[in-house]
Amino acid sequence: MLEALAVGFMILIGVIVGLFALVLLPLALVGLALKLLFSLILLPFRVVGWLIGAAGSVLVGLGKLVVVVFGACLAVVFLLGGALLLPLLPLLLIGGFIWLLARVLRPRAAHGAPPHRAGVSTV
User: Fold this and answer.
1) Per-residue pLDDT tens digits for 3-35
2) Whole-number Å distance between alpha carbons of 7 and 118
3) Does some domain include residue 13?
4) How far is CA 43 from CA 9, 35, 37, 50, 92, in A?
5) Rounded CA gap, 89 and 100, in Å?
6) What is the mean pLDDT of the chain?
7) How confident is the model over 84-104, as a mean pLDDT?
8) What is the H or E stretch that residue 67 is in?
């Protein structure tokens, strides 16, 4: 009796699994077909996205290269300029001190007085 009940229970489970398979297998096939259909429909957009990504990567790489080359050129210019101007530094300092001294010693007009114009009579 117990064996018959176990066999009946196993048959019931087999029927339930079979019914689930009958319901889920077509749903899985429909889902697979829809996924394939949408992937085929959207494939051109995916290819365009890959191309845009590749072009963007190339442009970013070129931009980095331009920045590095420009930075290297600027560094060379600054190094050469510093090497050429370093011997002139004492002359520049002396000239700057003379200019500052000339500014300090130059007489200034009174604040609020009109500026002097050459050739114009104030009488």
Assistant:
1) 888 888 898 899 999 888 888 888 999 999 999
2) 128
3) yes
4) 49, 12, 10, 11, 69
5) 16
6) 88
7) 92
8) helix 2-85
- C-alpha distances (whole Å) from 86 to each of 49, 78, 95 are 54, 12, 15
Nearest to 66 by CA among 74, 56, 78, 76: 74
H runs (alpha helix) in 86-112 = 89-105
Query: How many Å apart are CA 115 and CA 123, to the nearest integer?
Result: 15
In angstroms, the CA 45 to CA 119 distance is 80
Q: Report if residue 107 sits inside a domain.
A: no
Q: Note whether residue 68 is domain-resident.
A: yes
How many domains is the chain partitioned into structurally?
Answer: 1
82 domain residue, yes or no: yes
In Å, how far are 70, 74, 108, 118 from 78, measured between CA atoms? 12, 6, 39, 45
**The domain containing residue 66 runs over which residues?**
7-102
DSSP 8-state class, residue 107: -
